[in-house]
């Protein structure tokens, strides 16, 4: 079946309502991302992050919030406090059995969601206070003091809570995952200025037209590769045995499969690796110690130590995060309860070992792919001397969110076609019944 065209999206009333609601919420989010926090000299803060924060925590955080941190907006914290709280409970399920038990129950998941909201408020308050101290330290506050800190904490915490509420409303009443869409549009906002800068580089002959063609070709190839790896999966066949229905009737056994994606961990390994690799540079930014400055210089982007450490961290966290979100023992137990089995593999422990072996083999090319995507912007910069923003974490998030959102749109469209088919079928059945009565 051919993919539906864009104009057909608004032909379905329910889908139209969801899309318009999502766009309205995202418009409110991006509008608030340009309202400055009271009492901050935005230009001083933006200059610092642009000149010194590119390879530090501030530069990475600023990318996820769409430049809100450098502009000192009321949404400067973005969705990151909520994301951090969610990751805390997700990782906590692998450490604390109580949280793991709650994650498997419907009421338990609702309780974890409520705890996540509370932790989000606490994290937002601490981060807002840290932002106030940071702004004062950069001489970006004309009137520093307790009053400014209290105002900043109240403003930024309220903004973070509002964004959390807005994201939940998108997930509930809109289309797609609200939190992911907010990060998606925050990142996309930086792509357009990056494209304009690239055009200016061509006009000023910083790069040649031939180099631009190569960059565009690389960009298209990278996007195609990310899409292919994102949807690629190793299918493990599953057989459900036949069942005797009575009176000699036998129901055919069901055949299905377990999809194990090549990139099951998504973008999280790169985020974890970045959070660690930028620590030396962030510490050196606020320190004058020669030892810390030397360590930061060793781990600066472009050095061999930086590339090697970054690559190893990505590979490690790919296996680490995959082991957390994918448990072969649970899958083997569920298959055993349903009477299913993998052909040629014994149920129970042998099935778990087989799934774990396949997962280990599949994860290796996935981790290597993540490493290439993460290091690609640095290699492009070293080769052409221009910043290449269309790679790494941003690209994986953009492609992943776009694919997930489009899949949900297609599900709504297919459901509408199915409903129309059933209505037509009922009409035809009534017509035939009327002829034979």
Give a written overview of the molecule.
The strands form two sheets. A two-stranded antiparallel ribbon has the order 1-4. A two-stranded antiparallel ribbon has the order 2-3. It is globular. The chain is 70% helix and 5% strand. The chain is mainly α and 437 residues long. The chain has helices at 13-32, 42-52, 57-64, 80-92, 97-103, 106-137, 146-173, 178-203, 209-231, 268-277, 279-285, 290-298, 304-325, 328-338, 349-384, 392-435, and strands at residues 233-239, 243-246, 249-251, 255-261. It starts with 12 loop residues before the first helix and ends with a helix. The protein has two domains: 1-190, SecY subunit domain (Preprotein translocase SecY subunit), CATH 1.10.3370; 207-385, Preprotein translocase SecY subunit, CATH 1.10.3370.10.
């Amino acid at each position: 079946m051919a993919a539906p065209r864009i104009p057909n999206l608004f032909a379905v009333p329910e889908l139209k309502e969801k899309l318009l609601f999502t766009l309205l919420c995202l418009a409110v989010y991006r509008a608030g991302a340009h309202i400055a926090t009271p009492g901050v000299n935005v230009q001083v803060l933006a200059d610092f992050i642009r000149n010194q924060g590119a390879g530090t925590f501030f530069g990475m955080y600023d990318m996820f919030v769409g430049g809100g941190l450098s502009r000192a907006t009321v949404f400067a914290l973005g969705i990151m406090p909520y994301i951090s709280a969610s990751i805390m409970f997700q990782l906590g399920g692998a450490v604390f059995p109580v949280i793991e038990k709650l994650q498997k129950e419907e009421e338990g998941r609702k309780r974890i969601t409520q705890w996540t909201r509370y932790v989000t408020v606490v994290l937002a308050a601490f981060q807002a206070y840290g932002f106030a101290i940071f702004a004062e330290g950069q001489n970006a506050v004309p009137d520093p003091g307790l009053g400014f800190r209290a105002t900043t904490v109240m403003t930024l915490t309220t903004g973070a809570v509002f964004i959390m509420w807005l994201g939940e409303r998108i997930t509930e009443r809109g289309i797609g995952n609200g939190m992911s869409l907010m990060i998606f549009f925050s990142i996309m906002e930086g792509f357009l200025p990056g494209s304009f800068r690239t055009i200016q580089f061509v006009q000023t002959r910083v790069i040649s037209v031939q180099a631009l063609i190569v960059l565009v070709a690389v960009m298209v190839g990278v996007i195609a590769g990310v899409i292919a790896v994102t949807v690629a999966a190793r299918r493990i066949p599953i057989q459900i045995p036949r069942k005797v229905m009575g009176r000699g009737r036998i129901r055919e056994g069901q055949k299905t499969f377990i999809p194990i994606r090549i990139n099951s961990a998504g973008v999280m390994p790169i985020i974890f690796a970045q959070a660690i690799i930028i620590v030396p540079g962030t510490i050196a930014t606020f320190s004058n110690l020669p030892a810390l400055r030397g360590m930061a210089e060793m781990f600066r982007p472009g050095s061999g130590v930086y590339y090697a450490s970054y690559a190893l961290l990505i590979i490690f966290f790919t296996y680490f995060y995959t082991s957390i979100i994918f448990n072969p023992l649970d899958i083997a137990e569920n298959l055993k309860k349903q009477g299913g089995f993998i052909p040629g593999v014994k149920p129970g422990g042998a099935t778990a070992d087989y799934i774990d072996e396949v997962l280990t083999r599949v994860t290796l090319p996935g981790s290597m792919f993540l490493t290439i995507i993460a290091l690609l912007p640095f290699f492009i910069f070293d080769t052409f001397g221009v910043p290449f923003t269309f790679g790494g974490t941003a690209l994986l998030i953009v492609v992943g969110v776009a694919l997930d959102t489009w899949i949900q749109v297609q599900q709504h469209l297919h459901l509408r076609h199915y409903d129309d088919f059933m209505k037509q079928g009922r009409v035809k059945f009534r017509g035939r019944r009327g002829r034979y009565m």
